[in-house]
Automatic annotation (TrEMBL):
CDD domains: PBP2_LTTR_substrate. This is HTH lysR-type domain-containing protein. Gene3D superfamilies: 3.40.190.290, Winged helix-like DNA-binding domain superfamily/Winged helix DNA-binding domain. It holds the Pfam family LysR_substrate. InterPro entries: HTH-type_LysR_regulators, LysR_HTH_N, LysR_subst-bd, WH-like_DNA-bd_sf, WH_DNA-bd_sf. Keywords: DNA-binding, Transcription, Transcription regulation. Belongs to the LysR transcriptional regulatory family. The keyword Ribosomal protein does not apply. Coiled coil: none annotated. GO terms for cellular component: cytosol. GO terms for molecular function: DNA binding; DNA-binding transcription factor activity.
Amino acid sequence: MIEVKPLHYFIAAYEEGSITAAALRCFISQPSITHAIKSLESSLGVILFERSKQGIRPTIEGEKLYKLATDLLLQNQQLEAAFTPNSKVELHLYIQPDINIEQYSDIIETIKHSAPSINLSIVDSVEQSQLAIIDEQLLSSKFQFKRLNQESYKLVVRRDHALANNNKVRLESFKDLEFIERPYCTNRKVFERLTNEKNITITYKGKAIHDLQIQGLVKLGLGVAVIPGSYIQQDHDLKYISIVLDTPITRSIVLAYRKLPNVLIKTIEAIQHRSMALDKVKSSD
């Protein structure tokens, strides 16, 4: 008889394409994932994965087991829920650290209220998650997603800075500025490429670990910074200036998900429709 837990580990390995990523997702050691897969292979008398330096790839038997295993685990979950009315379904949520979650708090509330049986818990990495609010550039092909927002970047300076009277600046204005570095920026290389093309050398005065800290350092007069639009706040000491570029640099914030409980599918679709409606309102302004 096949146990349920090894099937969970097998599914994680299948979806991640990596033993390491599967272990991270399941909060266990790599040998435990390997042991579970070998145990299944021994019980079924088949090889489930082809192994290489690039990772693992499912065999025909692995593809077959994946479909059967996902159906079985879903039925198992539904069976438990039917006879345990107050039971909670654990859902792991990842929120990218440099995304201002306050901008998307209504999404979290919508999920919580539309599916009381869901227990949301925060995880440290996207590999461990079933649901994520994340920059699309950082998302693996293992996820589906719905777009929430398209964010542009702005230059933030103190109100007494020489550029504070400007509503727009070009990259050439960066030449004589001292910046607080944002090392976690997903578009950092794009900015660097554009400044290099214009022979602009960026001077950094230090690094920040999150965008609220960046704005605090700017307020103290320790430099200027480039931050995404969602972190713009009402602050009389700071000025946010649009950056004029031939090709605007933006990041796409998405609600990403793997296989979800049925109760959440319609909620995700509703969130997408609402985001599209908001986009139309913004474009008409």
